[in-house]
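Students often ask why inverse folding is considered easier than folding. One informal answer: many sequences map to the same fold, so there is more than one right answer. In these notes we will look at a single instance of the problem. The structure comes first.
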């Protein structure tokens, strides 16, 4: 009589090879301040902030099923907290970055009480309205420049090379942490609960999952990441204004990154961010036509690859660098 061994597999060959390649890539990236052109590091900082923001939107919408078009509220809040602490409270600007992210997570708690009263499309529109309230509030605060904004003057006494290097290293660490912690979370029991909630809240509750607490936790984590992205972006940009910090373009671009890369995948925002950077690098000089081209590309990819580019690769070739699924393997003894 045949007997079988049952094995739950959580790794793939691609994930094992990818881990080794990622370590080499991180080591090389860490050395960039000593050999790379400063413009490269500035470009990396900007696109990395878009990636972090897009990854948080993907966590919220792609995995949690909460489609928000107002996450720029938290990005702008994080940026302004950085400037206020650094300029007005004499906090070291680099120390102010994680503190700004923490404060953003805290403000997300009362905001969630308003947002979670809405469902579906109303939730999406409601988050945008909340973002506009944030923008108008900071635009009317004359102490921080009002509608015209203000500069991050606290960095003026720090040598330019030091400022750029530390900003780059902090951004690189934030990218690695974003990918690593998202991967760890999605492989945990809480990650499985989040996926279940996305598919059916009613069925999740019937299985004993605390839907409200799980959604709140993800909403706060996404706000923390958005605030971190905002603080890092304006740390490198050296200037902030309400229109730049709370622009709906942040969410529009993050949706573009996630949708063309692959909604509900960790690899998708990485691929989408690279494509977005390339398009921004070579097509942004065309003005409004640049936005038209982004829109057309998003439409074409959505029509041809409904699961996004990486979603297509993952489905067709079963390549998973960040496998979050559990696979049952049956082996005959």
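Output (designed amino acids):
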């Amino acid at each position: 009589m045949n007997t079988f061994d049952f094995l739950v597999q959580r790794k793939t060959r691609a994930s094992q090879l990818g881990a080794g390649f990622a370590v080499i890539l991180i080591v090389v990236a860490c050395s960039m301040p000593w050999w790379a052109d400063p413009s490269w590091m500035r470009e990396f900082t900007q696109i990395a902030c878009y990636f972090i923001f897009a990854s948080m939107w993907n966590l919220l919408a792609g995995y949690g099923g909460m489609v928000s078009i107002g996450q720029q509220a938290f990005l702008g809040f994080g940026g302004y907290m950085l400037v206020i602490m650094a300029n007005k409270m004499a906090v070291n600007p680099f120390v102010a970055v994680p503190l700004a992210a923490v404060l953003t997570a805290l403000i997300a708690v009362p905001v969630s009480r308003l947002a979670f009263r809405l469902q579906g499309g109303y939730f999406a529109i409601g988050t945008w309205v909340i973002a506009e309230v944030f923008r108008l509030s900071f635009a009317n605060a004359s102490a921080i420049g009002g509608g015209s904004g203000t500069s991050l003057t606290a960095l003026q006494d720090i040598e330019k090379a030091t400022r750029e290097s530390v900003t780059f290293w902090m951004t690189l660490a934030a990218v690695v942490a974003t990918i690593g912690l998202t991967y760890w979370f999605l492989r945990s029991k809480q990650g499985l609960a989040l996926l279940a909630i996305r598919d059916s809240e009613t069925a999740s509750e019937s299985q004993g999952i605390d839907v409200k607490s799980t959604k709140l936790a993800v909403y706060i984590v996404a706000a923390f990441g958005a605030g971190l992205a905002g603080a890092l972006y304006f740390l490198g940009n050296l200037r902030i204004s309400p229109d730049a910090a709370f622009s709906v373009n942040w969410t529009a671009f993050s949706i573009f990154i996630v949708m063309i890369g692959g909604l509900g995948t960790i690899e998708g925002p990485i691929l989408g961010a690279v494509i977005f950077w390339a398009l921004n690098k070579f097509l942004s000089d065309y003005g409004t036509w640049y936005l038209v081209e982004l829109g057309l590309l998003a439409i074409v990819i959505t029509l041809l690859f409904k699961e996004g580019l990486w979603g297509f690769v993952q489905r067709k070739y079963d390549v998973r660098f960040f496998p979050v699924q559990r696979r049952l393997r049956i082996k005959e003894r």
